Structure formats: C-alpha cells, structure tokens
Amino acid sequence: MQLTLWTYEGPPHVGAMRIATAMRDVHYVLHAPQGDTYADLLFTMIERANKRPPVTYTTFQARDLGGDTAQLFKDAARDAYERFKPQALLVGASCTAELIQDDPGGLTQALALPVPVIPLELPAYQKKENWGAAETFYQLVRHLAVKPTQPRVKGNQPRCNILGPTALGFRHRDDVREIRQLLALIGVTVNVTAPLDASPADIARLADADFNVVLYPEVAQTAASWMTRNFGLTATRTIPIGATATREFIREVAALAGIDPDVAAAAAQSRSPWYAKSVDSNYLTGKRVFVFGDATHAIAAARVAAHEFGFKVVGLGTYSREFARDVREAAAIYGVEPLISDDYLEVEAAICAAGPELVLGTQMERHIAKRLGLPCAVISAPVHVQDFPARYSPQMGYEGANVLFDTWVHPLMMGLEEHLIGMFRGDFEFHEDAAPSHLGGPATQAPAPPALIEVPTTPSAPAEWSPDAEKELRKIPFFVRGKARRNTEAYALSKSVPVITIETLYDAKAHFSR
C-alpha cells in the first residue's frame, strides 16, 4: 500500500460495494471503523444514484477496541438481516478492520441466518478495487449458481448471459442497453445480466444459457472462467468498442449462437467510419495520442485510435496489473514501451516525454492534460460526476463508436480553431476589433491591411510552391487557405526563398503567430 494524493483504484472492499450496489436483494455487512462510510459518497455523489448502497457498517470506534468487536459485528449482521431481509448476505472487513482479525465469515455463520451468507476474503494490503469486484462476483456465482442435473435443451433462439457491468462503472448502464439491442437485432436472447440489476435468484439460473458475453474482463473474467469449467459455458473474448471490434464481436457471437454471421454483421451500421474518412477529419490523420486506463478500455482505445481514426499511438499503459500481459502485447503492435503503473506522477512523466497531441485516459489524465495544455477525452474509470451523463452515451457497439468519434475528435477540432486564431491574429479581416460582418449596419471604411513584412522595393519573382507544400496547404480549411498562401508567399519573399517547402510553410506560421 502506498500513500498518495490520487489513486486509480480504491481498496478491494470498494469493489465489493460496487457489486452489492449493482444488484437487487443483496446486502453487504462491512466490519469497518467509524469514517469508512465515505464510500457511500462514490455512489450518491459521483454516480448520482438515487439510493444509498446496501451496506451496513459496524462503525466501531477507538474505545471499542478494548472490548468485544466480534460481538459488534454479529449484532450488525443480525440487525441488517432483520431490517432488509435480503436473499443473500455478503460479509467482510475493510482494510482497517482486517487488522483486528475478527473473521466476519465465521461469526455470521454462527448466527445461522436463513439466507446464504457469502464471506469475502479481500486482502486490502495486496489487492485493489477491481480485483475486489471480480472476487466478490466470483464468490456470488460460486455460491449461488445452480449446476443443472441434465444438459440444457436449446430453444428456438440462442440464449446468453451478459457479465461484468457494475455500479460506478464507466458507462456500464448505457453499454448494457446498447449490447442488449445489438443481441436482439441478431436474434440472441439475454438470459441474465449480472451483476447489474441481477438478484441472487438470477445468479442461480446463470447456467440456463448457451454462452456468456463478457463485457468487462476486469470484473467478470474469473467468474466466466469458473462457469466454463463447471457449466461448460463458453465466453466471448472480443470487447465491442469501436466499429471494427463490434463487427468482430457480432461474428464471434454468431459463431457461438449458430446463426449466420454475414447476416448479423450487416444488421447495423455506424456513422463513425465514414466520418473518420471525411474531409474534415483528414486534418487529424497522424495525430499523436497517448492512451492510459484500465486494460480493457486502454487496449480498445488504442486500436480504435490507430486503425479507425488514423492517429499515431505514442503511449499505451494501464494501472490494471492483473492484465499487464495483454497491454504489453498491444503495445508491441504499436511499437511503444508499455507503461504498467498506478503512480500518476509516473504517468504524467510518460505523457510529457511522449509529447502527444491528444490524451485518452482517466479522470487523472484529464487533470494532467489540463496542466500541460493538451486536449483530453476520458475513456476509463476512475471518473468523476461529468462522466455519468443523463443522456444515452455508450462506449460499446455501433452507437458507442459514434460517441467515441465525437468525444475524441471535438477536442482536436477546438484545438484547430485556437491554432487558426493564433495564426491569423492581427489580420485586418479577423482581428478582435473587427465588426461582425453578418450583423449589417452602416458601411464603414475598412482599415488598410497592416504591413506584416517589409518587402524589398526591388521587384522580385514570387517563390514557387513544391508539390509537398501545396498538399500540406490543402489541409488548411478553405476559408483561410488563401490568407495562409499570401502570408507564406510574403514570408518567402522577405527571406529570398526561391521554393516554398513544408518547412517554409510552418516557418511562416510560426512567424505570424508571434
């Protein structure tokens, strides 16, 4: 455990709270000191949930340490059951209470409550939030899922489970809606979505499906692997983030469901691929991008950035050490050194060294990019309240691909506007004192164009443009392209440059930006 100002993940009991809060008819009894109830704020203030998490804290104080803290926990567990009547009870300890070693699981079993009691062993000083969420979901599945006595008889439509979405997850609510629509479109029925909106009774019937769809491996991979071994349920491996990955996801699901993949792949389209090839986006080709987040979103974002938007990935990393191998393999594709770290200062140093033009990261990288004056888009948890929008805004599926395009490209386009304002500052048509041309009014004498450069009085032939410079000039928007051409030619004339190259074009840009 490291003392730090910012952290990418909380302790593992916060991951357990994400599972409990996502589900119905589940309650979590947490042995914790007074003050650990801060975790409620993550859901009520950041996610803007309309109810507090289903968690009961023992909230022992310093004076209680000299007495029987075990009895405090038993009383809290008994009272929680009597008050909330859950179908299943999770019990565990926070990082501080773990030091007392009161054994919440054994204490609750001694109460002989009439519901399943699932003890959580979450080593707070070795593991973190995502691991805690995965372990909690795995224990729920392991204790509650019922193995069928006979092989399942397949119905008219194939059935699947959607695994992984949780409370406090980055766009999980909208992702589930998008993927459910996509599965329905290709003829696949959803049996259970878990843990989000699932009850213990739903967990019990997970085996009544043909396969599992794993959307967030950080949370669901452990449970899905257990079901593969014990129930024979295969699981998808493709994460449908981006138009290309969504098509691959459809083909994978179609193969598992036994339906025609070609028909399924043609069932939906995205506007993102066409927009990415449009004239407006050509200016963005080759932009340098640094990607950091949880492994699932970071790998997917790098793929979309490189193969769908034409960006150049100059950095790729994750704080998810459990998936470090996957990130290293992805980084090798782009020829960059993988960054596996949960130290935000190390991430900031890597961003500075890479010199990107766009940062795709977490709430942490949003702050880092702001300090460095770089555009940024959030792609992964940890996130803040603005990343739980009221509107429908998925990251997955075809609509998710559209959202990615808008979210990533708009910061760069705004950067382009600032660049143009700087390039033509002081121009007689665009300067800050010029009257708006669209408002009408009495005609006024336009000021004479300022002399930007003192040119020689002796006549001189204008410089010629090289083909590469002409091609680069065409990337500038048409409404200022003529001004850029005249400024560059004037600069070349003042410097006695016979042929305008790309270097001359950018030298002129730097000169007039001062």
Automatic annotation (TrEMBL):
Family designation: Belongs to the ChlB/BchB/BchZ family.
Binding site for [4Fe-4S] cluster: 36
Keyword Protein biosynthesis: no
Known partners and oligomeric status: Protochlorophyllide reductase is composed of three subunits; BchL, BchN and BchB. Forms a heterotetramer of two BchB and two BchN subunits.
The EC number(s) this enzyme carries: 1.3.7.7
One Pfam family linked to the record: Oxidored_nitro
InterPro entries according to UniProt: ChlB/BchB/BchZ, LI-POR_suB-like_C, Nase/OxRdtase_comp1, P-CP_red_C, Protochl_reductB, Protochlorophyllide_Rdtase
Binding site residues for substrate: 415-416
UniProt remark on cofactor binding: Binds 1 [4Fe-4S] cluster per heterodimer. The cluster is bound at the heterodimer interface by residues from both subunits.
Organism name: Pelomonas dachongensis
EC supergroup of this enzyme: oxidoreductase
Its job: Component of the dark-operative protochlorophyllide reductase (DPOR) that uses Mg-ATP and reduced ferredoxin to reduce ring D of protochlorophyllide (Pchlide) to form chlorophyllide a (Chlide). This reaction is light-independent. The NB-protein (BchN-BchB) is the catalytic component of the complex.
SUPFAM superfamilies (alphabetical): Helical backbone' metal receptor (SSF53807)
MF annotations from Gene Ontology: oxidoreductase activity
Domain Nitrogenase/oxidoreductase component: start-end pairs: 12-412
Active site: 280
Cofactor(s) of this protein: [4Fe-4S] cluster
Reactions catalysed according to its record: chlorophyllide a + oxidized 2[4Fe-4S]-[ferredoxin] + 2 ADP + 2 phosphate = protochlorophyllide a + reduced 2[4Fe-4S]-[ferredoxin] + 2 ATP + 2 H2O
Light-independent protochlorophyllide reductase subunit B-like C-terminal domain span: 465-509
Full protein name: Light-independent protochlorophyllide reductase subunit B
Annotated region (Disordered), positions in chain: 439-469
Pathway: Porphyrin-containing compound metabolism; bacteriochlorophyll biosynthesis (light-independent)
Record keywords: 4Fe-4S, ATP-binding, Bacteriochlorophyll biosynthesis, Chlorophyll biosynthesis, Iron, Iron-sulfur, Metal-binding, Nucleotide-binding, Oxidoreductase, Photosynthesis
